[in-house]
Amino acid sequence: xxAPPVQPVPTPAAANGDSFRxxxxxxxxxxxxxxxxxxxxxxxxxxAIRTAPHRRAERGTAFASIGAQLFDSxxxxxxxxxxxxxxxxxxxxxxxxxxxxxxxxxEKLLVSIAAGIKMKDLQxxxxxxxxxxxxxNTPSAVGQAASVMCLGEKATQKDENRVRSLFGAIGKVxxxxxxxxxxxxxxxxxxxAYIFLAIEALADGGVAAGLPRDLALGLxxxxxxxxxxxxxxxxxxxxxxxxxxxxxAGTTITGIRELEKGAFRGTLINAVVAAANRCKELS
Length: 283
Description:
Blueprint: E1 22-25, H1 29-41, E2 49-51, H2 57-66, E3 69-70, H3 74-79, E4 83-86, H4 93-100, E5 109-112, H5 119-126, E6 131-135, E7 145-151, H6 157-168, E8 171-175, H7 181-189, H8 191-208, H9 213-234, H10 238-244, H11 251-261, H12 264-282
Parallel strand pairs: 1-2, 1-4, 2-3, 4-5, 5-6, 7-8
Antiparallel strand pairs: 6-7
């Protein structure tokens, strides 16, 4: 039986004093979130971050505001970087890697955050074996990402440390085998949308019970944040924390009974599995 994914490891403010240059091929919102987190946390100075102009001028402006260096082309970014992060849309990853292939020497680490693109394809298109694939999620925009990475055949411990430092700057990082990535997509990749729905529904419930809309939404979002923080910081099982707030014949157990009538847990389980299966189909 394969070993389960390891627990996240605390990431130091810098990768053990390691100094390197990171280049983003693709200057979208996720790439910007990573770059901002890296610069703000001190993992790397902003001057060690580089990218090339995007078709939307404001994307280059966003990187420039961090203090990152803007190059004229993706080829220049790849040539001048120790870690090359592929952050373009999945449908153009093959084209981009084929163009950059002559520049992706063994001295460089290739990192892909393109959803659904398998390690084997990354290796075939780039001619590179020193690859790490990472699946972050949208809360990276607020420094609360859940990122999972898997290592290619020739990725070293130093490579892993570098990538952990980069993505640790925007949240928590786990390491897992690639075979788990479809399930990761179904859970943490798609999961924020499930929670947004839950927050909206809780707020609607508050309004239905008589609360003003702004108060209901504030209470709903803070309640979800607080509950998640309790799970992360206490180390207690969610069921144990649920039992602690569920008094006999009280308000909470009455609400939980209604959730169980609606198959709340089963519906969430099915949503994760369905999203994971869809990811498998797409890739």
